[in-house]
From TrEMBL, chain A:
Its main location: membrane. Pfam families: ABC2_membrane (PF01061). It is found in: Membrane. Residues 45-237 form the ABC-2 type transporter transmembrane domain. This is ABC-2 type transporter transmembrane domain-containing protein. It is a multi-pass membrane protein. The keyword Transmembrane helix applies. The keyword Amino-acid biosynthesis does not apply. One of its GO terms (molecular function) is ABC-type transporter activity. GO terms for cellular component: membrane. Keywords: Membrane, Transmembrane, Transmembrane helix. The chain crosses the membrane at residues 39-61, 81-102, 122-149, 161-183, 190-212, 251-269.
Automatic annotation (TrEMBL), chain B:
Keywords: Antibiotic resistance, ATP-binding, Nucleotide-binding, Transport. It is a peripheral membrane protein. Residues 1-20 are annotated as: Disordered. Pfam families: ABC_tran (PF00005). Belongs to the ABC transporter superfamily. GO terms for biological process: response to antibiotic. GO terms for molecular function: ATP binding; ATP hydrolysis activity. Residues 23-257 form the ABC transporter domain. It is found in: Cell membrane. Gene3D superfamilies: P-loop containing nucleotide triphosphate hydrolases (3.40.50.300). This is Daunorubicin resistance protein DrrA family ABC transporter ATP-binding protein. One of its GO terms (cellular component) is plasma membrane.
């Protein structure tokens, strides 16, 4: 039977807010909120991270023990540690980024976050910062613990920070590429596994790139982190300057590769986001 | 952009009068890639500010597609959607500040975070300052009876409480428009009642415009000032709830109760008889009420004891079913 709503007492609506403008400060505020939310979400389940910290150290030492046929070859550890730090930064950072994104798309919170006046890339950058912090934590532990266990140190050289910074940008750009894939496909997990497996095999984490067959070393340089690790180890262990690695082509290739990866990541995200909005897959797969 | 609303003089359910409709959709069409027919086909709607607007239709009719387009989550193939006069596509930042939304089949909020953390996060996302978001979050959580449990993670809440947090997150920036896609689905009676009270309060006391989709016709009848029915992507009815019901009253059904068995007589077309305990109920639809009085006279002639004669009013569910089963309005 019919029951009708009581007569409405319609009051004037609130003043309409239209004041949000994209400025560095407004973007930074939203980015900070995104990072804070991301960290709180990560810390809500610390056990996964703790297990990964343990795995990261055990895996490296075990791998070196096997490669050394039952001994830890101390002369190879500093170089491979540089590579493994890059690997863990890449592996765990991108894992956190991609897993969160897929979960949020399935859960619906990704769609909610898109109903903001801020453009979508601001949120992606926030997610990238959170994921990078998780990756960085694992990379630091995965590097420091083997150093403590073996007593091996990595010599400090400020010049090496330049190519290593490019390793970091490499990793961030590659993570962004995977995130862009995750915007449109939940199968990104397979892609993540494929690439990170290739990286640990070929970026110098098992043995320095110089020990690989030439053709394999060429292939390896197309993977993220390899060129950066090669340039960093040349500065740290071969006594080369930035000028040396520039003139021999390592640094220019690294710069070009990094730039290409950054541009590709930005383009892919823009394309996949646009397609997701067109096809109605922004809040679901 | 200014919007003014007022209740017109007169009795009954008032229509909000406004200079700018809170929601304006014109010629909206969405065809998904690979589909032959559009999911939303040339839909035009105008929702006055301050009203609760029921957007009804069977599954797959195009309701959620329309809400997603309004929310900026889906691009239309053609047409225009304005929120408080702001074009969702061309003036996205301003349009996004006009509404909050609770989407169907979606968590809407982070279950790993507390209600408090969720509201602060969504407040910042809408461009609020931390202090403003905190003050508003406190107001909302107290109003929804969640203040005491604000620090607990939402994942541990009951379904009803989770939905309350989702509603609060949609309201955190105090938007003038609220889009609610099946807000009471899966809720128990008490939680449904709470959400309905909130929707009523939002509209009647806060002047918000609420666009609501639901399959629960009692919710629509109780809350909605205006209703649009969509079927196969096309709007087949768009009028006030009272108008919709009265339109269907023109085809009213009648019910005659008589004591004992039905005497030997032929019933008018569209009439049936059924026995309930000691009573026989003769019911059916007529185009002219005189037909019913003729039937009553004939029954009395046969010495039947007529207990009652009543007009059966259709409820919104009858109307809805009649509309969606009717011929397509192509």
């Amino acid at each position: 039977m019919t029951s009708t709503a009581s007569p409405a007492v319609v009051r004037p609506v609130q003043p309409v807010r239209t004041d949000w403008k994209l400025t560095p400060l407004s973007a930074l505020r939203i980015l900070r909120a995104e990072v804070r939310k991301g960290l709180l979400s990560q810390l809500a389940h610390p056990m996964g991270h703790i297990i990964m910290l343990v795995i990261s150290t055990v895996l490296y030492l075990g791998m070196q023990y096997v490669m050394g046929q039952g001994t830890l070859r101390r002369e190879l550890i500093p170089q491979t540690l540089v590579a493994i730090s890059g690997y863990w930064f890449l592996h765990y950072g991108s894992l956190v980024m991609v897993a969160d994104l897929v979960e949020e798309k399935r859960g619906g919170t990704y769609a909610q976050s898109q109903m903001s006046p801020a453009p979508p890339w601001v949120f992606m950058l926030g997610r990238l910062v959170t994921a990078s912090l998780a990756g960085l934590a694992v990379a630091v532990v995965a590097t420091l613990v083997p150093m403590l266990v073996t007593g091996v140190t990595i010599p400090l050289n400020a010049a090496a920070l330049v190519p290593y910074a490019l390793v970091v940008v490499n990793v961030l750009a590659f993570t962004f590429v995977l995130a862009a894939v995750a915007v449109s496909s939940p199968m990104v997990g397979a892609l993540h596994s494929l690439f990170t497996s290739l990286v640990i095999l070929l970026n110098g984490s098992m043995m320095p790139l110089a020990l690989y067959p030439d053709w394999l070393a060429v292939v390896a340089r197309f993977l993220p982190t390899t060129l950066g690790v090669e340039a960093t180890t040349k500065v740290l262990f071969d006594g080369k300057s930035l000028g040396d690695i520039w003139s021999e082509g390592t640094l220019p290739w690294l710069l070009a590769y990094t730039l290409a990866l950054v541009l590709f990541g930005g383009w892919l995200f823009s394309r996949n986001h646009r397609r997701a909005v067109r096809d109605g897959r922004l809040g679901q797969y | 952009m200014s919007t003014q609303t007022q209740a017109p003089a007169g009795s009954g359910r008032p229509e909000a009068v406004t200079t700018t409709p809170a929601i304006e959709i014109s010629g909206l069409t969405k065809t998904y890639g690979g589909a032959d027919t559009p999911s939303v086909d040339n839909v035009s709607l105008s929702v006055p500010a301050g009203t609760v607007f029921g957007f009804l239709g069977p599954n797959g009719a195009g309701k959620t597609t329309t809400i997603k387009i309004l929310s900026g989550l889906l691009a239309a193939s053609s047409g225009k959607t304005l929120l408080n006069g702001y074009d969702v596509t061309r003036q996205r930042a301003a349009a996004m500040q006009q509404f909050g939304a609770v989407l169907e089949g979606s968590r809407n909020v982070y279950w790993t975070l507390s209600a408090w953390q969720n509201l602060l996060y969504f407040g910042r996302l809408k461009g609020m300052t931390a202090a403003h978001a905190a003050a508003r979050a406190e107001e909302l959580l107290k109003g929804l009876d969640l203040w005491e449990r604000r620090e607990e993670s939402v994942g541990g809440y009951s379904r009803g409480m989770q939905q309350k947090v989702a509603v609060a997150a949609a309201l955190i920036a105090d938007p003038p428009i609220v889009l609610l896609d099946e807000p009471t689905i899966g809720l128990d009676v008490e939680a449904t009642r709470t959400v309905m009270e909130w929707i009523r309060t939002l509209s009647r006391e806060r002047g918000k415009t609420v666009l609501l989709t639901t399959h629960q016709m009692n919710v629509v009848e109780e809350l909605c000032d205006r209703v649009a029915v969509i079927r196969k992507g096309k709007v087949i009815a768009d009028m006030s709830t009272d108008q919709l019901l009265s339109q269907f009253r023109e085809r009213d059904a009648y019910e005659v109760r008589i004591e004992g068995d039905l005497p030997e007589l032929s019933l008018p077309p569209n009439f049936t008889a059924r026995r309930v305990d000691d009573t026989t109920i003769v019911s059916g639809r007529v185009s002219d009420p005189q037909e019913v009085y003729t039937l009553v006279d004939r029954l009395r002639d046969q010495r039947a004891v007529v207990q009652s004669l009543a007009q059966v009013q259709p409820d919104l569910e009858d109307v809805f079913m009649g509309l969606i089963k009717g011929p397509a309005h192509d």
